[in-house]
Amino acid sequence: MSSHDVLGRTEGGDLRLVGLTKRYGSFTAVDDLSLTIPQGSFFALLGASGCGKTTTLRMISGLEDPTIGQIFLGEQEVTDLKPYRRPVNTVFQNYALFPHLDIFENVAFGLRRRGLKDVKKSVTDMLDLVELGHLAKRKPTQLSGGQQQRIALARALINQPQVLLLDEPLGALDLKLRRQMQIELKRIQTEVGLTFVHVTHDQEEAMTMADTIAVMNHGRIEQLGSPADLYENPATTFVANFLGQSNLIPASVEGESDGVVTVSAHGQRLKVDAQRCRSTSGKIILGVRPEKVQVATDRGEVPAGFNALTGGKVVDTSFIGVSTQYLVQMPSGEELSVFEQNTGRAIQRPGTEVVVYWDPSQGFGLEGSQDIEAGAEADEEAAA
Amino acid sequence: MTTLTEAPAPVEERAPERKPRRNWTPWVLLLPGLLWLTVFFLVPILTSVSASVQTGNYDDGFKLTWHWANYQDAITKFGTQYYHSLVYSLITTVVCLALAYPVAYFIAFKGGKWKTLLMALVIVPSFTSFLIRTIAWKTILADNGTVVHTLNSLHLLKITTALGWTVGNHVLASPAAVVCGMVYNFLPFTILPLYTSLEKIDPRLHEAGADLYCSPFKTWRRITLPLSMPGVIGGTLLTFIPAVGDYINAQLLGNPNTTVVGQRIEDLFLRQTNGYPVGSAMSVVMMVGTLVIVMTYIWRAGTEDLL
């Protein structure tokens, strides 16, 4: 259903990208991307720098023209619409507030350009929403980073765009402020009910705020889903490594029965749910998140039916209060991460021989032909 | 017995409070500049002002007679010259701004890696003498040159002559020629400050403008122009101030009907035996007049905080 507002714009509708491609010379920044972002959702495009997420965002805003492909807002095609004619607004990475205008005029800017005369109430309301009403007369340079960020948000939101684009909006803030703003942004999005498309390289930020995350890599969407879905069931090694950490173990399938796949890895037999396997024959990669894994000194401690890998040796132990992180080296040299919650169990010192074990239903299986390290470097890069 | 709560005994042997040493370095560093300004700015100005109220002639010497009538002469007898100086310099400033803005804008936002080279090209002509460059315009605007030829074949010369910009079938020795020379000579002074202030504008602000419903023109009007105002003010001042006092262009490219104040002052100083007082009075009038115009301009532009 769509209705027309006073400006004659069509309201409502999903944002649809169809076969969107952007090339710069021989470099393909965005590669045949098709995506539907439902109205009112908080959508995150997550990826390392250079994955094409910002280019995608800029094509939606109109600041970049796609080489091929179409963009729809509801029923309306906006592919060739100039940025200033699109009902889309952006919160820029560096905020791009107008230094010659005070905060009030910055926020009022979009309304004034559309010819609205009486902007006072809307601007005041908007400044109240971001809780900065008292700073209306200040110049942007007199504000802190967090305040500027909120003004940038207010300046975009006040136009009630069909889609609000956020380009690494919290990138310039320190950790504490970033956490605070994540909650704030989520609150505002819930309150105003607009579609937010959020670009970030910070997986935690994406997970905290977004309903749906698209993990991008090399101009393509690697996987799309809810944060929990992506985390629990990564489709590729890239997603498994980029979104949180994963222990990825090369394994070969030995057989399948009753929805359970039996594999062999490190010369030992392990099980994994067939439903959670992307491939159930030949070589696969068995994955398990570090926090699902536990260590024991004695095979006897391992509950019946659990996967267990013996022969490992603790090479590093970091006690960080809520949990203890172990690095366990297998005889083959591969290292496995274990995050054990602090439930009062004994802490294993480096050098201890341990059994590593986990519930088979918590593992997942991936296509065996992929680069097992994919996404791990990208994540480090993004965190740096 | 001492307890922990007891205040420590006052320290007697605290270092004696040092007398703040007088720091002379800034003054010493300022001295050469101050000296220079005194000798070559303050003294000449005072001499000028004093000469403007003297009477006498070159042979018998000049006496300070507080002869304020010199100012009456300086103002009433040379109205045309003041008018020319003002009009030519104002037109020059406006034309320079109109030409310089697009150039500076282009270099600042589209210059990319060529920025420095392009700016160098703007400045390079200044390495040739001002006089020689002005004389070159005699050739450019000569009767058998391309400019006259083109204007003639387009029948534009008749129009410009009717408007009083050119004289007869000539471009040379006309108000238009004077303004052309001035625009040419002062253009870099408009471009440089404009470029500096445009270059400082974050191009992402243009994107923010486009994102917030500004067409390219509106973006320029609402964002670029206000942010480049320091450059506009600076550039126009750097053009107007030397232009209003310039008389080389009028001398070399003009005719007897295009004389400006500078030419008259030169004439009074160098070719009249009793010209010093009135010449000085004219200089003072020009100085005060320019100052008033400039101050009014800055005040009206409301950019004191930007300057």
Short summary of the structure?
The complex is a heterodimer of chains A (384) and B (307). By secondary structure, chain A is of the alpha+beta class.
CATH homologous superfamily heading of the largest domain in chain A = P-loop containing nucleotide triphosphate hydrolases
Outline the low-pLDDT stretches of chain B.
none
Strand content of chain A: 25-35%
- Percent of residues in helices of chain A comes to 10-25%
Q: How many runs of DSSP E, i.e. beta strands of chain A?
A: 22
Q: For the CA atoms, what is the radius of gyration of chain A?
A: 24 Å
Distance between the termini of chain A: 45 Å
Number of helices of chain B: 13
Note poorly predicted spans of chain A: 1-10
Percent of residues of chain B in helical segments?
A: 55-70%
Report the oligomer: heterodimer
Distance between the termini of chain B: 68 Å
Describe this structure in words.
The complex is a heterodimer of chains A (384) and B (307). Chain A has helices spanning 53-61, 103-113, 120-129, 145-157, 175-192, 203-209, 227-232, 237-242, 376-383, and strands at 3-4, 10-11, 15-24, 27-37, 42-46, 68-73, 76-77, 88-91, 163-167, 195-200, 212-217, 220-225, 247-257, 260-265, 268-273, 283-288, 294-296, 307-319, 323-329, 335-341, 353-358, 364-367. With 384 residues, chain A is an alpha+beta fold. Chain A has three domains: 3-232, Rossmann fold (3-Layer(aba) Sandwich), CATH 3.40.50; 246-289 and 363-384, Roll (SH3 type barrels), CATH 2.30.30; 290-359, OB fold (Dihydrolipoamide Acetyltransferase, E2P), CATH 2.40.50. The radius of gyration of chain A is 24 Å and the shape is elongated. With 307 residues, chain B is mostly helical. Chain B has a domain at 92-258: MetI-like (MetI-like fold, Orthogonal Bundle), CATH 1.10.3720. Helix content of chain B is 68%, strand content 3%. Chain B has 13 helices and two strands. Chain B has a two-stranded antiparallel ribbon with strand order 1-2. In chain B, strand 1 (54-57) and strand 2 (61-64) form a beta hairpin. The termini of chain B are far apart. The mean pLDDT of chain B is 90. Classes of the chains: A alpha+beta (384), B mainly alpha (307). Chain A: It catalyses: ATP + H2O + polyamine-[polyamine-binding protein]Side 1 = ADP + phosphate + polyamineSide 2 + [polyamine-binding protein]Side 1. Chain A: Part of the ABC transporter complex PotABCD involved in spermidine/putrescine import. Responsible for energy coupling to the transport system. Chain A: InterPro entries: AAA+_ATPase, ABC_SmlMolc_Importer, ABC_transporter-like_ATP-bd, ABC_transporter-like_CS, Mo/tungstate-bd_C_term_dom, P-loop_NTPase, PotA-like, Transp-assoc_OB_typ2.
